[in-house]
């Protein structure tokens, strides 16, 4: 699967979810829209891992503003991406959680694992 990293083009992962990738200095951003489910999870994880493998990516911020639904496979993607970021010494941030995805993270007691940022806050090397 090829991923064009042009900031002007969204990437269609499957019919349920789309991603828009952007490089902002050392911070890579992925804006998702759609539903993060068992069907889209493998492609989304591959996308996140490829972004984290990039030497120019020092942190990865995932924008959930347009994600209305996340299932447990989506949670697994987030945990795997977080583990990969930590193993590489990179930051991993989430932003824009809507009500249902936030509820799932809270109900599973996983929200505290992720560093949530507001869109106005800068991300990057905070250490």
Which features characterize this protein?
127 residues, alpha/beta, Transcription Regulator spoIIAA, six-stranded mixed sheet, 3 helices, disordered N terminus
What do these coordinates show?
This protein is α/β, with parallel strands linked by helices and 127 residues long. It has one domain (16-116): Transcription Regulator spoIIAA, CATH 3.30.750.24. The protein has 3 helices and 6 strands; from the N terminus they run βββαβαβαβ. The chain has helices at residues 41-53, 72-87, 99-107; strands spanning 10-14, 17-24, 27-36, 59-70, 91-95, 115-116. Strands 1-2-3-4-5-6 form a 6-stranded mixed beta sheet. It is globular. 30% of the residues are buried.
Query: In what range is the share of β-strand residues?
Result: 25-35%
Major beta-sheet overview: 6 strands, mixed
Fraction of residues in H or I helices: 25-40%
Low-confidence segments, ≥5 residues, pLDDT <50? 1-9
Mean pLDDT: 86
Give the tally of structural domains. 1
For this structure, what is the CATH homologous superfamily?
STAS domain
What gyration radius follows from the Cα positions, in whole Å? 13 Å
Summarize the structure.
Helix content is 30%, strand content 33%. The protein has 127 residues and is an alpha/beta fold.
Structural topology:
Blueprint: E1 10-14, E2 17-24, E3 27-36, H1 41-53, E4 59-70, H2 72-87, E5 91-95, H3 99-107, E6 115-116
Helix pairs in contact: 1-2
